[in-house]
Every structure is written in C-alpha cells, then in structure tokens.
Specification:
single chain; 130 residues; Cytidine Deaminase, domain 2
Length: 130
Amino acid sequence: MKVNLEWIIKQLQMIVKRAYTPFSNFKVACMIIANNQTFFGVNIENSSFPVTLCAERSAIASMVTSGHRKIDYVFVYFNTKNKSNSPCGMCRQNLLEFSHQKTKLFCIDNDSSYKQFSIDELLMNGFKKS
C-alpha cells in the first residue's frame, strides 16, 4: 500500500486540535492504518496524571474496537518542532503488541518534517507474547 504522506499530515493537523491538553498544551495526534482502514486518536490529559491517555493508545483502542489487530502504518503528529519527538515507552510497548515486522512508524513535527522507524528500531528487544 502506498501512503500519501501530505494528505495524512493535513488530516493530523486538523485532528490534533481535538487533543485535550489543559495542563501541558503538548498536543499529539495519531493515525493508524490497519487493513486499509484508518483510525485516529489524540492525547487526553487528566488532572490525575496517570489517567492521561496518549494519542497512540487512543488510536490503538479505536482500531481494536473496530475488530482489527495488526498495524501496518503509524503516523504520530506532534505540535512542536522538537525533531526528537517519539512515542513514550508505554506507547512503544502497545504499538509492539499490535505490530508486525513490516509495520512502519512516522514521527511528524508541526513543520511537516518527519522521521521513519520500524517497530524494532523504536523498541529493540521489546517484550512480546510467545
């Protein structure tokens, strides 16, 4: 499957505005493609910080709720120009759970620059079910 990264970035730039970030204003949006279907998620902060939901896990929940189990592509959009943005450890483990060897992950900054990773580059020697 060929992806239109320009279109995906435009979608994520619209979706990221829905993030609920009253504490950090660090907005993140995620788009997952699984079996040619798209699933979106945004980060949702909570005053009880451990209850906060990351955009990646939000998108995974949408995908699983729709009956899908294997991620083909992950696009994570950050509202900063940090150049070193990437999923947190908890999200990396969640992404690994539903990824396969060919899963591709893109980390995109708000200037549309991006870095591409494989799941193994993102979480080397991650814990996997047998």
